[in-house]
Design a protein that fits this description.
CATH architecture of the largest domain: 3-Layer(aba) Sandwich
Helix content: 25-40%
Number of domains: 2
CATH class of the largest domain: Alpha Beta
Structural class: alpha/beta
Distance between the termini: 52 Å
Largest sheet: 6 strands, mixed
Radius of gyration: 21 Å
Strand content: 5-15%
Bound molecules: pyridoxal-5'-phosphate
């Protein structure tokens, strides 16, 4: 039996992640009212894909069930707790999608003024869900990678707490993914955890969570972490396989997995170092492989956005290479909902039959 004293007693249905794992978070006080019940997402076992791929078991950590449909809510909730505890009345983020929506939602709930800095090229359809929460959206023309650092500087001068992709409290929030996986597997952790990686913040957080539970004796081993990237933008994978000392920027990033299209990830070197220290793995998958995996996920009943199908595509690749085998248990992090990227609908044949009510029974009979 594992000693679980480090996890708060009580009813998980009535706790926030920060209350349940309070000993693992750097908060003196928690305001549960700022929460939208982020986290506590299901770990869904595969019914088909594991046997198709001849892997002992594949689980999908379904982060699409978060309040704004991606794992970003965990880190945003942690950042907002911190911002409010510091007396900060204004928050912001630099994002082109999920993170901006998440920060806008939590900012609205906390009654904070919220700034979302987006790239000039962002399609309008992505702006509407940010605007609905009442955030101030600013399109910024210029180098999008520099904007990350510029925003932190401006934030300091103008008292705006920028909860960017891999800031410390966002990494803290992501630890809860690892904590939940430990509880959901009864502390018998999987062999591999596969994370679609862009800035590297989520990868760092999940690994940190497992490391902290191991240090407390809650789990015996830390799973092998897999950094999964899109072939069209794989700065971390590239540096890892080439044995480069540091990552270098990708010149022309191009992938359907837009949520993981950061050409020069701010936590890239940290992820690279962690991969080396822990014997982690990396993989890069093509857009075709991503779309195939998105369909396989849908066959399991889960609609993830292309970035969120990257882990499953990476599992197939590592299975083909014999690195993952029939003896292994794997967790894929399904980071965000497919509804966030409607352009992908056009890739699937939409067959709609129609008939009159008098013809309906005939129509159904014909389908059998
Ligand atoms: C942000 C995001 C990622 C990448 O996470 P990082 O912490 O930037 O590495 C992956 N998938 C989805 C859906 C995201 O929104």
């Amino acid at each position: 039996m594992v000693e679980r004293g480090a996890i708060a007693d009580g009813n998980a249905l009535r706790q926030t992640i920060f209350e349940r794992y309070a000993d693992f978070f750097p908060f003196d006080e928690i305001d549960p009212g700022l929460s939208l019940s982020e986290g506590f997402t299901p770990l869904v076992p595969s019914r088909m894909t594991a046997s198709r791929l001849a892997v002992r078991n594949i689980f999908f950590k379904n982060e699409t069930e978060n309040p704004t449909w991606s794992f970003k809510d965990r880190g945003t909730a942690a950042g907002v707790q911190h911002a409010v505890s510091c007396g900060c009345g204004r928050i912001g983020t630099v994002s082109s999608g999920n993170m901006a929506v998440s920060v806008a939602a939590y900012g609205a709930r906390a009654g904070l003024t919220t700034f979302a800095l987006v790239s000039a090229s962002i399609p309008t359809e992505k702006l509407s869900p940010i605007a609905v929460y009442g955030a101030t959206v600013i399109r910024v023309d210029g180098d999008y990678g520099d904007l990350y650092f510029q925003s932190l500087e401006i934030g300091k001068r103008h008292d705006i707490y920028f909860i960017n992709s891999d800031v410390p409290f966002r990494v803290e929030g992501s630890k809860s993914i690892a904590f939940e996986i430990c509880e959901q597997t009864n502390f018998d952790v999987p062999d591999f955890v596969v994370v679609p990686t862009s800035s590297g913040g989520n990868f760092r957080g999940i690994l940190k969570g497992f490391e902290e539970f191991k240090r407390c004796g809650l789990i015996a081993d830390v799973p092998t972490m897999v950094c999964a990237q899109a072939a069209g933008c794989s700065p971390i994978h590239r540096a890892y396989v080439n044995n480069d000392p540091v990552i270098s920027p990708v010149d022309h990033p191009e992938t359907i997995a837009h949520a993981i299209e950061n050409p020069f990830p701010p936590s890239g070197n940290q992820v690279l170092r962690k991969l080396r220290e822990t014997g982690g793995l990396s993989a890069a998958v093509t857009d075709d492989e991503i779309l195939q995996a998105q369909k396989e996920l849908a066959d399991e009943g889960i609609f993830g956005q292309p970035a969120s199908a990257v882990p499953l595509a990476a599992v197939r690749k590592l299975r083909d290479r014999g690195i993952i085998t029939e003896d292994h248990t794997v967790v894929c992090i399904v980071t965000g909902s497919g509804l966030k990227y409607t352009a992908v609908y056009g890739r699937y044949d939409l067959t709609v039959l129609s008939c009159s009510s008098a013809e309906l029974e005939m129509m159904i009979t014909e389908q059998q």
